[in-house]
Design a protein that fits this description.
Helix 4 (85-97) packs parallel to helix 6 (124-142). Helix content is 44%, strand content 15%. Helix 7 links the parallel strand 6 and strand 7. It has an eight-stranded parallel barrel, surrounded by six helices. The relative contact order is 0.15. The protein is globular, with a radius of gyration of 17 Å. It is of the alpha/beta class.
């Protein structure tokens, strides 16, 4: 397991984007701290120069394990479960438009808040049906390119759809595509799961990606989560992807990234020794 950190390619209103804006400076800092990957939050792939990004990644020897897509919901209101079929279609097309970028970097596509929330007047069963259909369509479009999709169970204060790992596993059954799995985030699990380690084991090989923040959504080590047992359990599932820091830039982005790395890197070394 290696460490990456979330970086928004645009300025964003999302609180836990560890870094945002000033791409070159941020990549330089991230690589200098010792991270081996950078998870890119991209609102719209049309606004991104992939060749330039690729040059920067190579220059700083950084991989891109995953692409975050939630800004299309936060900033444009696109969602798989909006009552307006044109909004749902635009959300599906937006996710499909990430596929070439994801394929280029061998990254997976994160389905976070673009799943939406159940809006007034929409029956929950209808919302779940739209969600499963959209995920099936996007997974099928991504499969021939070798791209995987990972849906993130997100706590109840941010969405009404898929808060827990159990609900995520039911959705996986329902969608029924091999390239569709889950992204687990310790911040959300701390709110929704009875026992974080058990939920990690229950998800097993369907863990496609992993976010870390402490209980207070500060960098790991700043709260009261037991990352020793959490990461050992993750390792025991056979997961060997990136552990990606998604925490608030507090007291500032660089200090948070440095402290998080200083806490996690020795832990990961011990676990894999
Ligand atoms: C995104 O990865 C996340 O964890 C959510 O809290 C987005 O709002
Ligand atoms: Mn997350």
């Amino acid at each position: 397991m290696r460490l990456s950190i979330v970086l928004s390619t645009q300025q964003t209103s999302f609180q836990a984007a560890s870094f945002s804006g000033g791409l070159e400076t941020n990549l330089h800092q991230i690589a200098a701290i010792g991270y081996q990957g950078v998870e890119l939050a991209i609102r719209d792939p049309r606004l991104v120069d992939v060749q330039q990004l690729d040059r920067l990644m190579q220059q700083h020897r950084l991989e891109v394990p995953a692409i975050g897509t939630g800004q299309a919901w936060n900033e444009e209101g696109l969602s798989f479960t909006d009552p307006d079929e044109f909004v749902r279609r635009a959300a599906i097309e937006r996710i499909i438009s990430h596929i070439p970028v994801a394929a280029h970097f061998n990254a997976l596509i994160i389905i976070g808040l673009i799943r939406g929330v159940i809006k007034p007047g929409v029956k929950p069963e209808q919302g779940m049906e739209w969600l499963a259909e959209a995920l099936r369509e996007c997974s099928r479009a991504a499969a021939p390119h070798g791209v995987r999709l990972a849906l993130e169970p997100i706590n109840r204060y941010e969405t009404t759809l898929i808060n827990s790992v159990d609900q995520g596993l039911d959705l996986i059954q329902n969608v029924g595509e091999g390239n569709f799995g889950l992204l687990l985030d310790t911040f959300h699990m701390n709110i929704e799961e009875a026992r974080i380690e058990q939920s990690i084991l229950a998800c097993g090989k369907r863990i496609f990606h992993f976010h870390v923040a402490d209980s207070n959504r500060w960098y790991p080590g700043a709260g009261h989560l037991d990352f020793g047992t959490i990461l050992r359990t993750l390792n025991n599932t056979g997961y060997n992807g990136f552990v990606s820091g998604e925490f608030m830039p507090k007291p500032n982005a660089e200090t948070a990234a440095r402290e998080g790395f200083a806490y996690l890197a020795p832990l990961l070394r011990r676990i894999s020794a």
